[in-house]
Write a structure and sequence with these properties.
This protein has about 190 residues and is α+β, with helices and mostly antiparallel strands. About 25% of the residues lie in helices and about 30% in strands. Strands 4-3-2-1-5-8 form a six-stranded antiparallel beta sheet. The chain has a two-stranded parallel ribbon with strand order 6-7. A hairpin with a 7-residue loop joins strand 2 and strand 3 (about 45-50). The protein is globular and about 45 Å long. The two termini are about 30 Å apart.
């Protein structure tokens, strides 16, 4: 329809030690969330590690899904159709953070808040799913039942009519043609 756009939520399991640690707590297949404004995933944003080898130096990142970090990643990609106006609100929110990215940091302490179910709000700090939830909340049409400081990657899928686009190895998605995506047999766990 005219006036509508799609956004994409990318959930990944990169297999890193930090991801395995988080996975041992969540018991979910994917523990990193990112948001993209294009089906080819050229524009992917999140909060995560700024250097591939150090998970403790983090902040706002424009992710390169062809990087070493994502080379062996499993993923689930979901799309959501939204209005042009909501799309622009979300994009502006990210552009504002990106233009001030040196003032933002990774909310590692906030992850402990998730574990004890107590929101830990820090100025200019996000963890990945908190960031994606905050971007979605910018649209004013997507609301979370819990504080965005407590949102885990799989919680994002329950707030709107997300459609599964692809599930499998991220590198296989990249190699396929848009519109010719094949859903794999990996189970979808929400």
């Amino acid at each position: 329809m005219v006036g509508e756009k799609k956004i994409y939520i990318l959930l990944t399991d990169t297999g890193t030690a930090f991801t395995r640690l988080i996975k041992s707590y969540t018991k979910k297949p994917y523990n990193h969330a990112s948001i993209s404004f294009d089906a080819d995933l050229r524009e992917v944003y999140s909060f995560g590690r700024k250097t591939p080898k150090n998970p403790f130096i983090g902040g706002f990142v424009r992710e390169d899904i062809q990087s070493v970090l994502f080379k062996q990643a499993d993923c689930a990609i979901y799309s959501l159709t939204i209005s042009e106006e909501d799309f622009q609100k979300m994009h502006r929110f990210i552009q504002l953070i990106e233009s001030n990215k040196d003032y933002y940091r990774y909310n590692l302490i906030g992850l402990f808040g998730v574990m004890v179910k107590k929101p830990i709000k820090r100025k200019n700090a996000f963890f990945c799913s908190q960031f994606v939830a905050s971007v979605l909340k910018e649209s004013n049409t997507i609301n979370f039942e819990k504080d965005v400081c407590l949102v885990q990657p799989n919680d994002i899928l329950g707030v709107a009519d997300f459609e599964l686009v692809y599930e499998g190895r991220l590198r296989d998605y990249q190699q396929g043609a848009i519109g010719e995506r094949v859903h794999t047999s990996l189970p979808v766990v929400l």
